Amino acid sequence: MPDADVKTAAAIRDALEYLAAQQDDDGGWHSRTYGSMRGGAAITAMVLFGAAHVDETLRGVHGARWRRGGEFLAGGVDEQGCPRNRDASMDYPTYAAALLLPAADGLKLDLGRGVRRRVVDYLLAAQLSESRGFEADDPHYGGWELTGDLRMRGVTTGANISVTCFALEALAGEKTEAAEAARKRAVAWLGRCQNMPDDEKLDDEKLDEEDDGGFFFQADRGNDANKAQWTDARHASPRSYGTATCDGLRALLAAGVPAEDRRVLAAAAWLGERRGLDVVPGFLAAPAVDPKTGEAEPFVQWPQALRFYYYATLARTIDVLPAGTRDVRREELRAHVISLQRDDGRWENDVHHMRENDPLIATSLALVALGST
Length: 373
Hints:
Blueprint (H helix, E strand, L loop, with lengths): L2 H20 L18 H12 L3 H4 L3 H12 L18 H15 L7 H12 L34 H10 L6 H15 L50 H13 L7 H11 L29 H4 L1 H9 L10 H14 L19 H13 L2
Helix pairs in contact: 1-13, 1-14, 2-4, 2-5, 2-14, 5-6, 5-7, 7-9, 9-10, 9-12, 12-14
């Protein structure tokens, strides 16, 4: 086995040992960093999703733990298919549902009679469309949001490209009319989040920043959730950035858009031109530190705060990046992620803005990155 493969396998084994040791007696994983995530549904789904991406020969030693985690999640799925915490509270339910389905498939978990179907139906119902009080001219129409509360009509925290990407991937195998209609709505929504060049500009050596082929986070263009900010003073042109572009690319493919489609090619070209891994690409350079406080403006932390999410989502796009660069990109990403692992097997971000300072989150994301390259 090549040295790189040996190092990767060792890093994965250490990470799985760390996660196994963090499992609670009820079978779930519960955040010890954030009280709002202590209920365990979202964290447990993320841990299982991470484990599902690594080779079975490495994760198999902890098979009983993954099964208990699946039982913990399945036991919280209500009649609508929403994965809830054991106290019936909701904890990022759309994420939990969208992560549970591929995790169960990858780990070969038996969710129990009817549970999978209910989760699929929940994800379809959670899309922001007419059934939830949204019309086609609404900027959020066709996407998915964080809350996933089916009782809310015409009210949303905002469809975003991350949740939408995971929902589409979870539903990719569904061939029903309802799933096909959901994908069609989602593709239209994705178009509102891509800085897409005109046909004649697509082959230009350098595209303008406003039509560079990358993606931003929300179709509500002036929303601060578009973390890389804007290229104009009116906040009409959100800047493309790495995590959103990876998610947009994955979402297009999950929705059935062909790999040779110009929208996919434009996003892949954006990512292909940006090789750095120390920070998420697409953000402005950090301003000078304030000499009085020793701190910079909070937004400049986003390129660091999103790092582990970027590694996980980037790893899942490498197969469609420009040919001739893919093997190198895989090697670079593996080596970089392994270099950040702590001695006890965990990963942890020093920046807290996206909760990657919770080692359960960062470690699960790192496993996705290593298992996908």
